[in-house]
Amino acid sequence: MKPAPFDYHRPETLGEALDLLAELGPDARPLAGGQSLIPFMNFRLARPAALVDLNRVEGLAGIACDDEGLTVGAMTRQWDLEHSSETRARCPVLPAALRWVGHTATRARGTVGGSMAHADPAAELPVVAVALDAQMTVAGADGTTRSIPGGDFFLDHYTTALGPGDVLTEVRFPSLPASSGWGFEEFAFRSGDFAIASAAVTLESGDGIRPAARVVLGGVGTTPVRAREAELVLGHGEPTQATWCDAGEAAASEIDPLDDEIPAGYRRQIVANLVEKACANAWARRGGPNG
Amino acid sequence: MADRRSIEVTVNDETYRHEVPVRLLLSDYIRDYLRLTGTHVGCEQGVCGACTILFDGRPARSCLLLAVQADGARIETVESLSVDGTLSDIQLAFHENFGLQCGFCTPGILMNTTFFLGQNPNPTEDEIREDLAGHLCRCTGYQHIVDSIIAAADRRAAASDSA
């Protein structure tokens, strides 16, 4: 239960961090909050030859807001994002999701970018990133910067569009339009446990008749999963209470969850229930503060 | 690159300097180098909460930090809570309300509660239970721990009312 030997580097600028990662090659890993990587190393599931500790890199942490949303530095602690008044005003789905992320002690250390880059299939922040169409800003080893949409970022379990030597530097979360509402629901056996399933829903009322919907599920596949059948159900006609139930059933039928210690049928039932609740909450929240 | 590194850490208001292996966990540094064995090591995967300390004023799992990362940091462990043998108000509340049995989980819970009550001086029972979810206790069933935290909050409220 101790990590295998590794070299440790502590750059102070992003340029130094990128140079180190380029020089050390693919066996080096960036270390953000370490709340997933260090347990993986303690279990020897991960044995990086070197760690490039990003905790002292200048300019990677902080929350900036404008009328269209939040720009969150990758090294911003989850606890800081959860408790920021800007987050509550502009992206209230974030604190609602963050309270499910681990515990106070892990959120106080764990980072927003670390959670995205780790890409645990049960994690909450990737689900929100896909639901809100977040943009990931990535600094590449060649000195370039590029932006990757949330929907293209998560490729497989623990696998993202980040290449060797890349560093995720910030995440842009757009605010929802005022005509929208959001819902976030999760089920875990204990507070702070990995999600059995989670659901993020955004509904835009538009003309009040055909809401544009986004339904994203966590914990049911190798990445956050868009429930497109459920989105179609929500996009048809004036919604009633039955619509939320139908959307939940559609989401439950279109997923293909693992049949492991949690039976697939059980996960489907949970998903149906979470989506139904998240839809009802999203509809009720339309016109609230920035959705 | 050297596999050892010099660090300077302030723990419970004392500054220490050591050369440590870079793969040394902070929990092991605190226990083995500083001999502050009040910080308990349970799972070494961030689940049990026994090794929780305050790192720059915030709760952290010391088993999920490297000792080298604490270079320049300010740390409080459970040994910081009592002053000259007088228990802190939270420790006293645990003592009076049977908030522990074997005591293995207690140091982590005390450190987390120190932060928690600072943020939320008047918590509901649900809030207390949600916060305690990050700490495994296999003796008490948690009821007496919840009672202890409520008692500590009440004692603080009474003290500030009479001040």
What this model shows, in words?
The complex is a heterodimer of chains A (291) and B (163). Chain A has 291 residues and is an alpha+beta fold. Chain A is 34% helix and 23% strand. In chain A, the strands form four sheets. Chain A has a five-stranded antiparallel β-sheet. Chain A has a four-stranded antiparallel β-sheet with strand order 11-12-13-14, sandwiched between helices. In chain A, a hairpin with a 5-residue loop joins strand 6 and strand 7. In chain A, helix 10 packs antiparallel against helix 11. Chain A starts with 6 loop residues before the first strand and ends in a 7-residue tail after the last helix. With 163 residues, chain B is α+β, with helices and mostly antiparallel strands. The mean pLDDT of chain B is 96. The longest helix of chain B has 20 residues. Chain B is globular and about 55 Å long. Chain B is built from five helices and five strands. At the A-B interface, strand 1, helix 2 and helix 6 of A face strand 4, helix 3 and helix 4 of B.
Describe the secondary structure blueprint for this structure.
The complex is a heterodimer of chains A (291) and B (163).
Chain A: E1 7-9, H1 14-24, E2 28-31, H2 37-42, E3 50-53, E4 63-66, E5 69-73, H3 78-82, H4 85-90, H5 93-98, H6 104-107, H7 112-118, H8 124-131, E6 135-139, E7 145-149, H9 150-153, E8 154-156, E9 159-160, E10 167-174, E11 180-187, E12 197-204, E13 212-218, E14 225-226, H10 228-234, H11 241-254, H12 264-284
Parallel strand pairs in A: 1-3, 2-3
Antiparallel strand pairs in A: 4-5, 5-10, 6-7, 6-10, 8-9, 11-12, 12-13, 13-14
Helix pairs in contact in A: 10-11, 11-12
Chain B: E1 4-11, E2 14-21, H1 26-33, E3 52-55, E4 58-61, E5 74-76, H2 89-96, H3 106-119, H4 125-132, H5 143-162
Parallel strand pairs in B: 1-5
Antiparallel strand pairs in B: 1-2, 3-4, 3-5
Helix pairs in contact in B: 2-5
